[in-house]
Amino acid sequence: MYLSIIVPVFNEAESLARLKKALDQALDGFEKDWEVIFVDDGSLDTSPQTLEGIATEDPEHCRVILLRRNFGQTTAIAAGIDHAQGDVIILMDADLQNDPADIPLMVARLEEGYDVVSGWRKDRQDAFLTRKLPSQIANGLISWVTGVKLNDYGCTLKAYRREAITGFRLYGEMHRFIPVYAHSLGARIVEMPVRHHPRRWGKAKYGLERTAKVVLDLFTVKFLSSFSGKPGYLFGGIGGVFILVSMVMMIVLAVRRVTVGTAVLTSPFFLVSIVMLSFGFQSLLMGLIAELLSRTYHESQQKPTYTIRQKIGITVPLRDQEGLPHA
Predict the structure, then answer these.
(1) pLDDT recorded at residue 325
(2) CATH class of 3-227
(3) pLDDT value at position 327?
(4) Of 258, 177, 210, residue with least CA distance to 72
(5) HEC string of 282-311?
(6) Which residues are 117's β-sheet partners?
(7) CA 252 to CA 263: how far, in whole Å?
(8) Which of 162, 12, 10 is nearest to 86 (CA)?
(9) 0.90 cut: is pTM over it?
């Protein structure tokens, strides 16, 4: 199998048959094997029955996963990735706002040597105040914090080489951050303008409250992408700043005591400096604990701290620290 298209579904019964028809038209003449995996995320309408009918009509290309309840879009995508057989994985929405006709173009960009092709809804057909403006703010914030500059993190339509999205699990609302994870593994990313259509069937599943979830997940993503292998740098840096500020305040208090005669113990700055010194040492100790956890995570699962793009002329199996070969 070359291409797997993963479509999370939640209450999209009216659009599913039309989406399958559009996929068939877009991939008509596609020279390699392909499959579409619909993951129903606990829909309350007739989406499961519709999907069963679609899978019965086209067993060659169509697969269906029915989750027991609504777990969220990220979990549905993770389930699809776990069951996908393709070397190339496409993610897209089920509401027909993404255009299946863009899929062959994205695959062509991958074949130019990229690992990730991220869709950009350059002419987005959504309300400005409730959808486009919060999205623009979130995209700018994510690009600034992570250093992976994309115009449209929220666009589900993206293409990945399988090896670019393995080695990490998805939680919360983190499917939008897959390019950040892939970048941390050394993936080559390109952004491509894609078509975007107004929603004609069903209702939007997300509002402004999703922005808060994205911001909270951003902290986790930044930590995992930048400090998962060296957490001591983060906690140690924070602890070092607290200790340094505390020491400066102590010196100022001592100078005031000698030159002016101001009592040290009665000054509120003395209590602040003691608290900051305590926080600083606690942060350093947390950094040491995090370092131990990081090493336990990698060594217990024999996970290397690096990723390899390609091996040329190497046939000797990778060996662990005890000299035992493993995959």
Answers:
(1) 45
(2) alpha beta
(3) 47
(4) 210
(5) HHHHHHHHHHHHHHHHHHHCCCCCCCCCCC
(6) 159, 190
(7) 12
(8) 162
(9) no
CA atoms within 13 A on the CB side of 172: 17
Q: What integer pLDDT is reported at residue 48 of this predicted model?
A: 92
Confidence of residue 138 (pLDDT cuts 50, 70, 90): confident
pLDDT in tens, 62-80: 999 999 888 888 889 988 8
Q: Which two tokens stand for residue 18?
A: 């039309």
Read off the pLDDT band of 204 (50, 70, 90).
low
Evaluate whether 211 touches 132 at the Cβ level (below 8 Å): no
Residues facing 4 on adjacent strands = 35, 89
Query: How far, CA to CA in Å, does 324 sit from each of 298, 317, 318, 320?
Result: 16, 9, 8, 6
Ordered strands of the 34-40 beta sheet: 62-66, 34-40, 3-9, 88-91, 158-161, 116-120, 189-193
CA distance 294 to 217: 20
At 188 the pLDDT is: 93
Which two three-digit tokens encode residue 135? 């999205």
Place of tokens 């020279």: 31
Angle between helix 231-259 and helix 209-227 axes, rounded to 10 deg: 90
Helices (H), the chain: 13-26, 47-57, 73-83, 103-110, 133-146, 178-184, 209-227, 231-259, 268-300
Query: Number of helices (H) and strands (E), helices first, in the chain?
Result: 9, 7
**In which residue are the tokens 């389930």 written?**
79
Torsion of CA 161, 167, 170, 176, to 10 degrees: -40
Q: Are 15 and 95 in contact (CB under 8 A)?
A: yes
